[in-house]
Amino acid sequence: MFTGTVLVVDDEKNIRRTLRMVIEGEGATVHEAETGERALELLEAAIAANEADPMLASELPNVVIMDVMLGGISGLEVLERLSALGEDGHPPVPVIMISGHASVADAVRATRLGAFDFFEKPLSRDRVVVSVRNALRQSKAERELRDLRQRVHGEIIGTAEPMRELMRMVAKVGRTKARVLITGESGTGKELVARAIHEASDRHDHAFVKVNCAAIPRELIESELFGHERGAFTGAVGQKKGLFEVAHKGTLFLDEIGDMDLDAQAKVLRVLQSGELTRVGGHTPIQVDVRVLAATHRNLQEMAGAGEFREDLFFRLAVVPIRMPPLRERLDDVPLLVRHFINQACEENGLARREIDPQGLAALARHDWPGNVRELRNVIERMVVLSDGDLDIDDVPPELRADAPASDDARGGESDELATGDARFAELLRGQSELPLKAFREAVERAYILQRLRDNDWNVSRTAEVLGIERTHLHRKLKILGIQRGER
Length: 488
Description:
single chain; alpha/beta; Rossmann fold; Helicase, Ruva Protein, domain 3; 3 domains; 5-stranded parallel β-sheet; 48% helix; flat
């Protein structure tokens, strides 16, 4: 028995009825379409609804069973259209192709287009059941992965390889109970990674509690972490739960753990070993179920060797080490971050949405950003607040403009080529000078989108993120501009 929703696409009523009886007999729900046009209409509407609101994922069938030969457009044409809407050239749902007159060429084409399975009529009940069951399992796994990615990403912006590797690590470790030590320079976003791990875990419905170990006075750190009983010390006028208790069933994030004193480290170690704590001034052990994540900009291993950090605690915390790359190691992500922070600053300050010109963006992308993402965010907010409209090179702080390229006049008319960093657009300017404005604009847009698709290995979702538009919007652009997958 299995559960899920299956869309059966076949122009033969008897085939649809047979498949319905078999699949519903196993517990799944069946919907029917007798033409490829109707199937596309249902699937495209469901995909668009799902992308607009991921909570509508139930509108999309879990599996499609489709005949190769249909009355209107063929099943292979439908499969090709679905593959263009999915990621990495695969349909957004598993598609099982069936045919009474299949050729080897049809089977090969279906496989290349991402078909989950392919078999011939007359249908074998056992073959149908096994194939649908496996397809439903894959569909469930893919949806869980999409949900996980959505929870994990949050405000972690970036498509450079160091960030892709980071997100792969976060997705893997998030599903486990392992303790994680996040290292990296100040301002790189270590807290965002900790929150992403929490959101990717089965604890995401419970509390995420952050403790800044560097901000709590030494004499108060034990009370903050473990709580205290009334009268435990001067000023303890009542019983107080510690943050370990507050984070019960959830996640406790110990930020800047390297600044915690050795006495508090010893007590944290005991909680990690036993799962028990005792409030300051108390005598009764309290059981806690907490996943501990820690972060630091310091080298704890060196500190442990110097006796400044407990080595046994270091090994307890660093079961899985994750390093946050500094922004200078992923400058390709600066344009994405800039646009994100511009939108964020406009929203937070009640300002109309603004854009930034290529020259201003290029100046920001050349800076080393010693203060990392935090410094970039602060600079962008200042630029947005002080500007009167869209941002340009004059809005960039003077210290960041020092190495900016010369003005348009000084560059002798090469501004477009230098601003974009892509000679293709300079060629386009020279070769299309007689086009009407609308046609020229479409030619430039087509060339730019095509280049970004190539840069991202034709991954539509990643390209849409780089372009700062919705994936459905990009799909519409591809159709309007006549861009075909793999086009050179």
